[in-house]
Specification:
The chain is of the alpha/beta class. It folds into two domains: 125 residues, 3-Layer(aba) Sandwich (D-Maltodextrin-Binding Protein, domain 2), CATH 3.40.190; 81 residues, 3-Layer(aba) Sandwich (D-Maltodextrin-Binding Protein, domain 2), CATH 3.40.190.10. It has eight helices and eleven strands. The strands form two sheets. It has a six-stranded mixed beta sheet. A five-stranded mixed beta sheet has the order 8-7-9-6-10. Helix 4 links the parallel strand 7 and strand 8. The longest helix has 21 residues. The chain binds phosphoribosyl ATP (PRT) and magnesium ion (MG). The site of phosphoribosyl ATP (PRT) has 20 residues, from helix 1, helix 3, strand 9 and helix 6.
């Protein structure tokens, strides 16, 4: 079998926490990814290569079949939508929560609140499910600045320790979703490359449960 398998990862947390998991599953890049400017990497398996792209681009590459497998945060997957994607495995890494947040003690009155976020689809769905009217303001980063500068009344953002919120005089309010990184597989890849994908899925599943067992 000569079919190449391409696994898409993103720089930052996902890469840092996924590489040890892949190593447990006996998949290792040939060079040190974190200190490289390359975007495509060979591994110890001649038929497996790693692609390093922006986190929000991972579902797009996998859904279109430009990569076969991907690792992405559930936040990114919820925001992107699941068309063309299977989500066979919770990797149980990069855990955090997607929350609504506001300035400490802010009086959230009855008027239509302005909510700043980069997760506009998730935010729209969350509030409309509850029949709550909000104005959503799309930002690309530093959401916690929006209430301070009077741009928004609330934000929807990822919270882990809560330190970022506290440092900016804010507090978490409601949990929208518990988040962790997931393995995704493209619909076409799942059909056409199943024989290649199954062993990777099996060894990653084993690596994840071994870790849960050790904790
Ligand atoms: O940098 P780029 O825009 O390309 O992507 P990214 O910043 O989304 O990537 P990265 O690597 O930072 O995060 C990838 C994934 O990690 C996210 O999609 C989440 O699923 C997950 N994750 C887990 C987190 C965090 N924990 C996290 N703490 N992503 C972001 N944060 C940020 C958050 O945005 C906030 O600013 O950390 C801050 C909150 O942390 P605390 O500990 O201060 O509460
Ligand atoms: Mg980042």
């Amino acid at each position: 079998m000569t079919t190449t398998l391409t696994i898409a990862l993103s720089k930052g947390r996902i890469l840092k926490e996924t590489l040890p998991l892949l190593a447990d599953a006996d998949i290792r890049p040939s060079v040190d990814i974190t200190n490289s400017r390359k975007l495509l990497f060979e591994t110890n398996h001649p038929h497996i290569q790693l692609l390093v792209i922006r986190a929000t681009d991972v579902p797009t590459y996998v859904a279109h079949g430009a990569a076969d497998i991907g690792v992405a945060g559930k936040d990114v997957l919820l925001e992107h939508g699941s068309a063309g994607l299977y989500e066979p495995l919770d990797l149980n890494i990069c855990r955090c929560r997607l929350m609504t947040c506001a300035m400490v003690g802010a009086r959230l009155g009855n008027q239509r609140p302005r909510v700043a976020t980069k997760f506009v689809n998730i935010t729209r769905r969350y509030f409309s499910k509850q029949s709550r009217q909000v104005d959503i303001i799309k930002l690309y980063g530093a959401m916690e600045l929006a209430p301070i500068m009077g741009l928004a009344d609330q934000i929807v953002d990822i919270v882990d320790t809560g330190n970022t919120l506290r440092a900016n005089g804010m507090e978490p309010l409601e949990t929208i979703a518990n988040i962790s990184a997931r393995m995704v597989v493209g619909g076409t890849a799942m059909k056409l490359k199943h024989a290649r994908i199954q062993p990777v899925m099996d060894s990653l599943t084993a690596a994840v449960s071994q870790r849960q067992h050790n904790n």
